[in-house]
Write a structure and sequence with these properties.
This protein is mainly beta and 222 residues long. The protein is built from no helices and 15 strands. The radius of gyration is 16 Å and the shape is globular.
């Protein structure tokens, strides 16, 4: 069933949004894309699930990114899922075809408390970890790179999501040192050190509709 303005639910979610790049990536973004792909599945966990009409968007990965999975706009059928130690729940997204060292990461999300009101993470810290693939899921026996504990650049995009809660969409970016030489695998991005203000990772375009999550009891993928 297609839902509109559902508050909290246990449901599927599209692939989450992020970009991988070399440290040299930069320049003006190309604000032209307005395509939709079919939403896929994601592990069960609290999400904000909104279904709206397709609209234009101007939220893109930087030019010359190594891997692109840009974020849904507020007029697209978007979802947002917690990936934060304050819940706790951690999400993993897969990538492939990366042709250079990963030295720069961009991602999008919301910052909201348990009642779904805007908040500001303080301190603003995330843990980014890269994992090898193990038959379609992340191999959690040992990270391929990281974990990197980062304080990213946070930019208010000016976009608000959800008609009632008016949740602010932020774009985050950080440079990784040393970089990660991984052509395919998984990345996890998790908010840390602020249990009262949770990071909600936004859904995105162009993914395969398959990701994994873990609430501390084991991986759930779909």
């Amino acid at each position: 069933m297609r839902r509109r303005y559902a508050l909290l639910c246990i449901c599927s979610c599209a692939a989450v949004a992020f970009c991988l790049a070399t440290a040299a990536t930069g320049g003006d973004k190309n604000y032209t894309s307005a395509k939709i792909t079919k939403s896929g599945s994601q592990p069960s966990a609290p999400v904000v699930d909104i279904t709206l009409s397709t609209g234009s968007r101007d939220l893109e990965c930087p030019p010359n990114s190594l891997f692109e999975q840009p974020v849904h706009g507020p007029d697209d059928p978007w979802t947002a899922g917690v990936s934060d130690t304050g819940f706790p729940y951690i999400r993993y997204e897969n990538f492939s075809g990366v042709s250079g060292a990963i030295e720069d990461v961009h991602w999008w999300g919301l910052e909201a408390d348990a009642s779904l009101y805007n908040c500001t993470k303080d301190p603003l810290q995330f843990e980014i970890t890269f994992w090898n693939d193990d038959s379609g899921q992340p191999d959690l026996t040992s990270p391929a790179c990281g974990p990197y504990t980062v304080t990213p650049t946070r930019v208010d995009t000016g976009y608000l999501y959800h008609s009632t809660y008016q949740l602010i969409l932020y774009e985050y970016s950080t440079v990784l040192s040393p970089g990660c030489a991984l052509t395919e695998g998984w990345v996890s991005i998790e908010g840390v050190n602020d249990p009262d203000c949770r990071f909600w990772w936004m859904s995105g375009f162009d993914g395969d509709g398959y990701s994994c999550g873990d609430d501390g009891t084991g991986l759930e993928c779909g």
